[in-house]
Amino acid sequence: MRRSPQDSRDSALRISRRALVLFGVQAAAVGALGMRMHQLQMVETDRFRLLAEENRIALRLIPPARGPILDRNGIVLAENEQNYRIIIVREEARDVPAVLERLSRIVPLDEDARERVLRDVMRRRPFVPVTVLDRLDWDQVAAVAINAPALPGITADMGLSRIYPLHHDTAHVVGYVGPVSDADLRRADDQDPILQYPKFQIGKVGVEARLDRDLRGRAGSRRIEVNAVGRVMRELERHEGTQGATVRMTLDAQLQNYAQARLGEESASAVVMDVHSGDILAMASAPSFDPNLFVEGISVADFRALLDNPFRPLATKTVQGTYPPGSTFKMVVALAAVADGLVSPDETVFCPGHYDTAGRRFHCWKRGGHGRMNLRDALSESCDTYFYDIAQRVGIDRIAEVSELLGLGLRHDLPLSGIAAGLNPNRAWKQRVHGQAWRVGDTINAGIGQGYVLSSPVQLAVMTARLATGRKVAPRLVRAIDGAEEPVPEAEALGFSEAFLAQMRAGMYDCVNRRSGTAYASRIALREVAMSGKTGTSQVRNISAAERATGVLRTDQLPWERRNHALFVAFAPHDAPRYAVSVVVEHGGSGSGTAAPIARDIMIETLFEGAPPIEAWPTEQRGRAERLRRELNLRDFSPGAGAGRTRA
Amino acid sequence: MSYLEQNLRTIPSGPRKLLHVNWALVVLTVTVACIGFMMLYSIAGGSLRPWAEPQMRRFAAGFVLMFAVALVPIWLWRNSAALIFGLSLVLLVIVEFFGQVGMGAQRWLDLGFIRLQPSELTKITLVLLLASYYDWLDLDKVSRPLWVLVPLVIILVPVAMVLRQPDLGTALLLLAGGGAMMFLAGVHWLYFAVVIALGSGGVSLILASRGTSWQLLQDYQYRRIDTFLDPSNDPLGAGYHITQSTIALGSGGMTGRGFMQGTQSRLNFLPEKHTDFIFTTLAEEFGFIGGITLLGLYVLIIVFCVVSGLRNRDRFGSLLTLGIATTLFLYFGVNMGMVMGLLPVVGVPLPLVSFGGSAMLVLMLALGLVQSAHIHRPRKVL
To answer: Which value does ipTM take for this structure?
Structure first.
């Protein structure tokens, strides 16, 4: 195509005009881009910078180490143990099944576990570590470490887990920890974010649960930089949390071990208390269980077995079990009577073996009768007739008052789960709960600790301590938290004159130390530490008319669950009381036969701090006592023996 | 005899052509490419691999290509324009059958040394052919309906083929580039007015029909339009990209977070950070100053092209240069508008900076054509 110069000039002119328009539009667009850039980068930059920070920075919690629980002497009851776990990272392992296959030749890893790991690994992002095995010992970890070149993506990781070195001994009091449940998360009073931390453990029962806030500590945090898919790039900032507080308890691990062992396989409980401070030195509930099982995750079969056991190993019988106190209640009735001046200590009641009132006949446990009984004799020989009579005179409302004053029928403030209140029945209570008027027979039954009256072993120990000191001693389990001693409150006086209390103690002294006393066989032979106490045998059923006609069956002829509960309460030394003990053996037969010997042995152990002289037992029992103590397989708490680690 | 050919004697030949290269443009080109290398180095976490080094090699190849193209007399390009355009259409057909589909909807041909996207190539060959067409066409015929129809067909054929890929973004850019050529050539205002009126009328008709009894498109097609216009409708898809991209830009502030300190790109919050979204990294690390500088460099390239084009008395060279300048503008304008959230997300690379072979080579080819037009421009005006 040929074009003249004129054409060219026209063309150029036209192009120039059009170009002006076209590139004018482009200039406007560039201007808009510049404005937008200015808007984003100069005007709104603060907002975007914040958004960028939110993008890249994540806050992760560092779980605090749980505080240890120690006994009164620093022996460890609960602490954290370092354990090893093996984790796998998919992107480093590449061929996960092959690596797991090789790993299973070194450490126990069955088919199911391998499948679980494989599933977990595939569900997560490739850089997220997945736990393959937990709670490995050092040897296994070492074996894995040696084979590391053949196991790409496998690393050993250290973690803390709770351990209870005394196993069964402290299961009920110390309790155990477990993973946070949905119910725990819903609790409005505890919104600690650390609860959301995967696999975080909190106290489930006992001291672990009730003092959880102290033991838990405060979570630390770290600010980390993450990328768009959540991979951690680096740590920007780290705040260490604070470790949980050290809880030092009033328990004496060695005594606890003895008490637990002494109860053996009976369904029984025992409480040892310092009568002045209220310190609970031992609180045993049998049979027991190993709390470590719960931390590791108890198997269904094991858990089923614990639940189905008729002896209820999971129950903390010392505070959760309530029993008719039986004759151990007689001091309450007696104290109410003498304090109100209704009965003088020398006044006698004749016991023909039964007591007739309101058209009914109530039997004394001694069919032939005790004859003439004064207060001291009646306590010593546990004459029912005597107490039927004075209970009638005192009346149930006053009995209930004194009972409460002595610490029965109310919840003591202890850091334990499911504490039962027991029951001090009175007229108003029966009317309210049963809609019935109180009857004479009810008072008769209450007079010997039967009927509606219910007490727990710890209450009985408190009652004994209060009788021994005349003060409102309150039980306590925690001695110090993080080194700060819990103050022992000055116990106020009960308000009963010392003379009346001395009469109670005298009756209890005779019960154990006089030949005719019901617990004479369970005395302490050393005079300077003589023990005073009271037996109790409480019925769990009514004796039928037919049985009465044919004569009451002997204990060993009855099925276990129909046998009487055996109880015993005691304090020692008689002249300067230091310790109170209560023992309840469920369906144990009789207080004197079953509970008293146990209580006496525990008392001797307490008084002599684990090194009892054989002279403490009556001569004829020494052989048996020695053999029994050997057979208990007590832990050796001596330094270096390994049973108990101590901490300052 | 054309004006150009009358002045052949004044046009440099042989090695003397190198003296007449528009060196300012070359320097600007190299500067922008170096900014690209720097950003690719930064995005890789301070490493030449995997992006910066291959990009440098491609640029080197493109640089040679640019000079090769520049030294070829412009009339040879003019005379073979139809052939070259035809070739790019053939490639578009081949890619339709043998091509591979990548991110988004763009298709490429794996030629071994390069992954060629014929649709990128078509952006330039279309401009080339239209410049040649209007150079051939008598000035007084430019606005006659029949002669308007011809370029329309030339434009709509590749547009239709690209749409089939389906790559709506590139199709719109081809349409815009072709339209700009027709506009520059002097097609009557009325045609543009009618097309714009029809286009906006049709679009508003389609949008207005939504939800009525005479709805023109399917519901899912409307939803696609929604997402295209406002990515926040699709927060996990396109919306996520645009959100993260504006965060990166905004957090850059005045001076930026420093070289290799951009958290958004280093931590992978940015999508396509080494290709279409590379500008966000630049703006994050060098801030407003960095962003404006790059924008300024592009504007300078365009200004040099426009000056060269307007001073070129050869109609073909002038149209070609201005058309290529407009294409360049469409590249970076749409890319920046997209990452700043002004325009919908379409797959357009940042010219000379984004990692990618096709765009780099095509752009160097285009700049070579600009240089060729510059070198071989007629010198004396009668």
So the answer is: 0.91
